[in-house]
Description:
The structure holds 2 protein chains of 2 kinds. Chain A is an alpha/beta fold. Chain A contains 15 helices and 11 strands. The termini of chain A are close together.
Amino acid sequence: xxxxxxxxxxxxxxxxxxxxxxxxxxxxxxxxxxxxxxxxxxxxxxxxxxxxxxxxxxxxxxxxxxxxxxxxxxxxxxxxxxxxxxxxxxxxxxxxxxxxxxxxxxxxxxxxxxxxxxxxxxxxxxxxxxxxxxxxxxxxxxxxxxxxxxxxxxxxxxxxxxxxxxxxxxxxxxxxxxxxxxxxxxxxxxxxxxxxxxxxxxxxxxxxxxxxxxxxxxxxxxxxxxxxxxxxxxxxxxxxxxxxxxxxxxxxxxxxxxxxxxxxxxxxxxxxxxxxxxxxxxxxxxxxxxxxxxxxxxxxxxxxxxxxxxxxxxxxxxxxxxxxxxxxxxxxxxxxxxxxxxxxxxxxxxxxxxxxxxxxxxxxxxxxxxxxxxxxxxxxxxxxxxxxxxxxxxxxxxxxxxxxxxxxxxxxxxxxxxxxxxxxxxxxxxxxxxxxxxxxxxxxxxxxxxxxxxxxxxxxxxxxxxxxxxxxx
Amino acid sequence: xxxxxxxxxxxxxxxxxxxxxxxxxxxxxxxxxxxxxxxxxxxxxxxxxxxxxxxxxxxxxxxxxxxxxxxxxxxxxxxxxxxxxxxxxxxxxxxx
Lengths: 473, 96
């Protein structure tokens, strides 16, 4: 169980992709995690048989991959975990799906998430909460909670999520697996249903750094259909060396602030000391605008969301209510189709962009974004990577925070600055608190995924946190 | 501070029909978030340029050709998810 890509390739060679896919489908079928919204049973098995018969030698030939349900999959229901996209079957594939298919991967299903990726716990899904495999009374993190729970629960060896303000790293941390948010522009967003497009990136999940790098190699790359796509050729998996000698680590004290659990703080410091023992050096850095990142992030994300989600009006896809006049029909479709959190964000975003408030909220947030970006530029003059907790605490209980939106937003304090600056960050397991996983994030310069992958890989090779598995399932 | 009356106006701009109960329920939560956003008033941003995008991007142009990699969906594909359609068109509600 919990096989790596290499182990799966050997098994596919010896047995077949069909058998492997069938085993995952069986585990999904008997699972209580609610990690999937749609299980693509028939198409996955038929694709596996196809791979078996054509001796495909792609890097992911015959290997199942779970896909967050905001990534368009041709012919497979795609809902964003929202009632408003009831019955929506995309007529095209996202760029990352084309890439995966080209590499021989088998799309096994679409994973649960916070509605339109708006959340930190996967509790705002129209399809019910996903449960954390380490403790099923707890959240898996969000918004890509289904993808992370699927990998941690051995219901898929690999998964894709999306990270707008921490939505890959948070569930990776809460579920004890590895998740990467790449530099803005490295993975095409074509076919990713937009929430806040200046912030979000698709990102890979796996149980180990090598598999994350392999999946990243497959899905990264230039795409003419995303005008923010960056034209770079790089093989990230070749960066994986067990060596951090000479690596300069910066530790921003602002990320260990009030509200950070003591055990989380200790686990991350132990990890930093471990890397020092392995040859890295450490300095403390100051990032003075960090405390303003959360407010700036939410204003920008909600403003972009209010505009992006204007397209959901029941005309071209999804839910449609009884027709009345134009304005009333749209308002009723949207009232019936969106959940509370989505409505709140659309309302606040609309408010922040409305006449009289635009400068006070939206423009101000964009200016603060500049200051936060400059904090990173300043820090990276002296260091190669920054290390900080991914989340200030381990997974919380289902229902614990969902009633108070602000308390839930505050959980994102250490992840959102990274999206505002557009830099890459990888979350890796670095400890446990009362049986719950703790994650640390290794943050890099723009386009320097190679360095953070190498540091993460070295940490993993010299510790065994990543090899612990939940017992409950 | 958003009042219930403001909320009615913003909901209209957002094309979201809210019931009286919704307005009652949302107003305090929206205000607690807005209070928090007020934190930004403490930051001196005099003369700071806004960052709309993190990468130095300029407009991207392509040739105006069909059958390029950017080709659009067929009419049939585009209509495949429409809840209401008529003679190859999306069917919208009446304007007035």
